[in-house]
């Protein structure tokens, strides 16, 4: 391998046979290039789609009720199902160990909120302190609703940034000011922002009990919202959240006398199930790109093998001459392999470097909605290069061995 | 390479002394090339013995055959068989590469032989830039480069015109004058007359083996 004479011989052969070298090289280099770019785009697509889904892919469970569509136990369909505080209390008691954040919600869709001469229509929701974390609200000013507010039925509100900007002109500090909702005064104790932006910031929160009392809800609730405690992996989290929603659904249907197969009366939105679909999609994308990648490698291997076969065939006469001049069979095989490995290695790494450079410099420019930061696992790329080198060597070995075995006289006759 | 076997040589008893210049003649199919191939260890006889410089040549595997060829024999072919992508100099140096001679030394020796065949000025040229006669002279230099005991020439003038043939034969005679043993396979009588001994083959048998008065090739040019 480190025989300087052999190297000189190889370099001479390569430099005198540029077309042959070029063709071998281009098939290897393009194979690697296509594969790396493909895997890079695959990764980019994965990145892009996962950032697209990120805002939603939390472990939040959201429960709401509707109208029954099926007759059950002598009760007519068409009943409006309304959850009560006791539903929430029972669930919390029954699943205390599993729950992380929990809140029930009482909502008025279009509450007229005004401050001085400014007014607007916003979603007004009575919530519990945990709701801040369920909805991912960040406090810009003041504080969120706490347990004390809840217990004392305080007439406090926490308003969204949009609400503050609409009602409090000229940068007036809203904290401690009173706003009117349906003509009743509430004291502003905090301003929040939401990662989902303006739509979610056009909301006003007040303590649940206060909302129920003020807006005539008594002990009615519109929604339940929970998160479960973290599990060690995604599968476990999915399993426990599916179990929890199944149990909750069964309880609610039992309690409110709903047919077990009536799907419109109780609805549970399980984000983890959505997340699972998302992960399945990711797996499909990865699978697809690997499939295409492997096919590309196979095409590359076939290409290299073909070229090696042709090269050896073309050199049969030369091999005969070399044997007549005293070349031993092993040195013939060595010569062919040495050349093929050398060329495939150089070409493979050239393709690799070129494609990595392309991903590095052009990659960031093709930042679209569904492709972001295309990149490739370096180890994967390197192993691919080696697979092609080994394939080239193997593809060269068999014809080279055959050529080395041919009697020189036969090879010399080969025209 | 069919499976049918054909006895080409049917009992050849023949020895060549050191320093001889022998031509082997015969019509096509007489077995002259087969004889040369056996002598050149490119082919093997089914039976019989072959002794080269006191060394019995038998049970050859590819490896040993290659070594003997390199050490003892120099080949000259009808179609020259130069490696097309190597310069004249590198072609001549190739047997030395297989002897394990260092590159710089190889180049020096090869250059000396190219000078000997009068092609020193053409050392950097590729075979397809040379005329037929020049190619054959490069091939002769290559055959000589490993300093072999015997030169084997298979129709060395078969692809050349008469004038060039005689020039090549003049070179071969000159090499023989220096004491090297040379066997030439030919079917041309005028070429055969330029050797010192003519062996005539017919249907795999020697029918005639006579010493002749050598005609110097140069006198014909």
From TrEMBL, chain A:
It holds the Pfam family FtsX. This is ABC transporter permease. It comes from Autumnicola lenta. Belongs to the ABC-4 integral membrane protein family. It is found in: Cell membrane. Residues 292-408 form the ABC3 transporter permease C-terminal domain. PANTHER family: ABC TRANSPORTER PERMEASE YTRF (PTHR30572:SF4), MEMBRANE COMPONENT OF TRANSPORTER-RELATED (PTHR30572). Residues 21-239 form the MacB-like periplasmic core domain. The chain crosses the membrane at residues 21-41, 287-312, 332-358, 378-398. Keywords: Cell membrane, Membrane, Transmembrane, Transmembrane helix. It is a multi-pass membrane protein.
